[in-house]
């Protein structure tokens, strides 16, 4: 049973890559993923807000017509 309790701790602390590899390889990947996520969330939020404003405008027009 104690081995099962120690296993998640080993999974949560992965072995570190060599410092040269992490210095040259990981920051560009992190920057790229951050940029992609930021652009995706910005476009999604923009689309969502546009959809909501269009829906509000159509509801107002429908209320005026009725």
What structural class do the secondary elements suggest? mainly alpha
**What oligomeric arrangement do these chains adopt?**
single chain
Proportion of helical residues: over 70%
Termini separation comes to: 69 Å
Order of helices and strands: HH
Transmembrane segments: 20-37
Keywords: Membrane, Transmembrane, Transmembrane helix
Secondary-structure blueprint:
Blueprint lengths: L1 H11 L6 H47 L1
What does this protein look like?
The chain crosses the membrane at residues 20-37. Keywords: Membrane, Transmembrane, Transmembrane helix. With 66 residues, the chain is mainly α. The chain has one domain (18-65). Helices cover 88% and strands 0% of the residues. The chain contains two helices and no strands. The protein has helices at residues 2-12, 19-65. The termini are far apart. The model has no long low-confidence stretch (mean pLDDT 66).
Which features characterize this protein?
2 helices, transmembrane, mainly alpha, 88% helix, rod-shaped, 66 residues, single chain, membrane
Task: Please provide a brief summary of the model.
The chain is mostly helical. The protein is 88% helix and 0% strand.
């Amino acid at each position: 049973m104690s081995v099962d309790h120690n296993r998640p701790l080993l999974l949560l602390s992965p072995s570190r890559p060599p410092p040269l590899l992490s210095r040259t390889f990981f920051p560009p990947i992190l920057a790229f993923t951050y940029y992609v996520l930021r652009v995706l969330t910005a476009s999604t939020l923009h689309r969502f807000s546009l959809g909501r404003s269009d829906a509000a405008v159509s509801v107002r027009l429908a209320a005026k017509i009725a």
